[in-house]
TrEMBL record:
PANTHER family: CATION DIFFUSION FACILITATOR 1 (AFU_ORTHOLOGUE AFUA_1G14440), MITOCHONDRIAL METAL TRANSPORTER 1-RELATED. GO terms for molecular function: monoatomic cation transmembrane transporter activity. It is found in: Membrane. It comes from the Eukaryota. The chain crosses the membrane at residues 122-143, 149-170, 191-211, 231-250, 270-289, 295-311. One of its GO terms (cellular component) is membrane. One of its GO terms (biological process) is intracellular monoatomic cation homeostasis. It comes from Orbilia ellipsospora. Residues 85-119 form a coiled coil. This is Cation efflux protein transmembrane domain-containing protein. It is a multi-pass membrane protein.
Length: 345
């Protein structure tokens, strides 16, 4: 949390304009005083000393560009200034996060949950209702058209509501966990369900790959497949619905872990349904083999995505370290709040 850039910046301004320097210095001092007053008594390691005011950050950014070598590309100078600005802004956020009390973190999380409670319910239950309806539409589309590409999209759609049920049940079970009972075990229900679905979907994808490969190998007497407009419309409705849900869940994905899972699911379904429509229509309009080739591509995509999900969920079961910011926050809380309490007892 270096402060050398700030002092250099002020000296450079001083050389250019003493009056400007004096005004900026007073402004920075006032901002720093306000910041330190807000954190006094809650900052045993004096982390607030590393906070940079907006004025300081702007000076650092400006002087990073001015002090660069003249031969350096102007875009590179600007990039360097932006990089320093982003660094100090991120450092400010990290320091402020560390200086917050546990009660402040708890209240902040509670307020966020209360403010987004309705949006969360719409995202979860709306996704579940949509997945149930869309799975029926895509079953109809696949069976009525006979398109292997649409069978691949159908296989993916069928398991969406089932995975939603696991998500809802696991969240309900986790809410009922007694913190006094250890280990409760229910917190792993979602992880176990996702791993099970991953291997089921992988198996279905492999079966579709084999069927599509056999159809390509056996050939076809016709140049194109039969075009079935209602099937294309049904999958197009699914694509549009998934796009709407994808955009809706975007704002909540960084707040709720289960909404993040739904958002990823909608994102993946956009690729699957979009490509399925293209290859199904291509097989009916251009060449018949485009449809089974599309089914193979979609199945490989689904297989890859679900195997990736299985690996990520498996890592949660065996244990994976938290990100660095979380580790730093927990360590700081333990050293400043919990450890002194333990030593004083």
């Amino acid at each position: 949390m270096a402060s050398t850039h700030a002092s250099t910046s002020i000296e450079l301004v001083s050389a250019a304009d003493t009056t400007t320097h004096r005004n900026v210095t007073v402004s920075i001092a006032d901002e720093r005083t306000l910041t330190r007053e807000q954190t006094i008594g809650n900052d045993p390691y004096d982390l607030s000393r590393g906070l940079k005011s907006p004025s300081e950050i702007n000076l650092i950014k400006k002087n990073a560009s001015n002090t660069s070598k003249k031969r350096v590309n102007p875009h590179a100078k600007k990039a360097k200034g932006n990089e320093l600005k982003n660094f100090y802004e991120a450092q400010n956020e990290k320091i402020k996060k560390l200086l917050k009390s546990i009660e402040e973190h708890r209240n902040e999380a509670k307020e966020t949950a209360e403010d987004t409670a309705l949006k969360y319910k719409i995202a979860v239950w709306g996704s579940f209702a949509a997945n149930v309806i869309l799975s029926g539409l895509q079953i109809y589309a696949a069976i009525s058209s006979g398109s292997l590409s649409l069978f691949a999209t159908m296989a993916d759609a069928i398991f969406d509501p089932l995975s939603n049920i696991i998500l809802l049940l696991s969240r309900r079970a986790i809410k009922r966990v007694d913190s006094k009972v250890f280990p409760s075990g229910k917190a792993r229900l979602e992880t176990a369900g996702n791993i099970t679905f991953s291997f089921v979907m992988s198996s279905v994808s492999l079966i579709l790959i084999v069927i599509s490969a056999r159809q390509i190998a056996s050939g076809s007497e016709d140049d194109t497949n039969r075009f079935h407009l209602p099937s294309v419309i049904a999958v197009s409705v699914a694509f549009t619905t998934k796009l709407s849900l994808f955009l809706y869940c975007w704002a909540l994905k960084d707040i709720y872990s289960d909404v993040l899972i739904l958002w990823r699911d909608h994102r993946n379904d956009l690729f699957v349904n979009g490509f399925g429509i293209l290859t199904s229509v291509g097989g009916s309009v251009l060449k018949w083999w485009i449809d089974p080739m599309g089914a193979i591509f979609i199945s490989v995509l689904i297989l890859t995505l679900w195997l990736k999900t299985a690996w990520e969920e498996f890592m949660l079961l065996v244990g994976i370290a938290a990100d660095l910011d979380t580790q730093q926050l927990i360590t700081y809380i333990c050293k400043t709040l919990l450890l002194p309490s333990i030593l004083n007892t």
